[in-house]
Amino acid sequence: MYSVVADVEHYPDFLPWCQALRIKGRKREGDTEIVAAEMVVGFKGFRERYTSRIVLDPGARTIHVSQTEGVFRHLQNDWRFTPEGGHCRIDFSIAFEFKNRLLGAVAGQAFAHVMTRMSVAFEDRAKALTEQAALRGA
User: Fold this and answer.
1) Fewest C-beta atoms under 10 Å: which of 15, 77, 89, 129?
2) Residues 16-73: tens digit of each pLDDT
3) In Å, how far are 40, 52, 77, 123 from 80, measured between CA atoms?
């Protein structure tokens, strides 16, 4: 699951509302990789662009995202992946506030729906990649 979430370049392939993504830069800092990514999202007639700083730490199995430019007054989300037997526990937290009150009101009403759809999209992506790998190995 870590590799699915860390593979931001492919978000437009499977994440609802992610219309485009462009990597603006990458660098290594010790065991972590820092990615600057610009994402275009669309929802209910809104289309917005923002840039995030993404800190990928595969050793710690964590991903930290914070907006550096764009539509949010602030945006931070954190992922932690903990192996549990043959499965993975995922802890996810998000804190955000839109600059535009109207956009904030629309997003606030749809937040639970959006989070559910995104969770399912990540799970479906992981299943599809696992099936593809199994077929290649067969």
Assistant:
1) 89
2) 989 999 999 999 999 999 999 999 988 777 788 999 999 999 999 999 999 999 989 9
3) 25, 18, 10, 15
